[in-house]
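Dear support,

I submitted the protein below through the web form. The confirmation email said the job was done, but the results page showed an empty box. After a refresh the structure appeared. I'm attaching both so you can tell me whether what I see now is the final result or a partial one.
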Amino acid sequence: MAQPRSLPELIRFVRAHTRAAPAPLVPELALHQGSELTPLWQAAAAELAPWEPAPFWAFPWAGGQAVARYVLDHPEIVRGRSVFDFATGSGLVAIAAARAGAARVVACDVDPFCEAAVQLNAELNGVTVEFRAGTALGDPLLGFEVVLAGDVFYERRLAEESLAWLGGLAARGMLALAGDPGRVYSPARGLAERASYDVPTSPEIEQVSELHTSVLEVLPIAR
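What the results page shows now:
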């Protein structure tokens, strides 16, 4: 089992193995990004053994780029509100919400690398984003008004649990938006499209150079 690593150690690793570059669909925001997936993964295994996570935090995924683009283009949905970014990864969506004028932004992820990435990326973009470690599934998110999820439909269980949780939050009056580049487990019902984009991606991680990606509002689950 991987041993916990200190935040300063993870920050040093992220700095050493990434470079700051604009997010393709959201060029007004920059992220510490990995140039190649495999060498970054190998470096994590070699330098931080026995920790060997997939470096999801090091790339701007299509769903997150689409949600970030939508938030920046429609700042009224977050301006002055408390925003929760679920499965934040690099923190791109959370940073977009902060840049668009959210009163408070909390980014959440189970991967401890994400805390380092979010801290560095928030500083890079001159915004403040809080970080919450662990999963928020099932949490009523009291005090929040908007919940955003960049890309969570790539595993069956995560997709099903996320949709049910987000639908429940919507039923309590929260605005819930999710990005969807057509993943294997993308839900067929319970969603309404708000926007769509052709998102530039890395062929190394997506096998294609562009993905048509939707921003979906999660509809309230009927009680």
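Response: this is the final, complete result; the empty box was a page-load delay. The longest helix spans residues 156-171.
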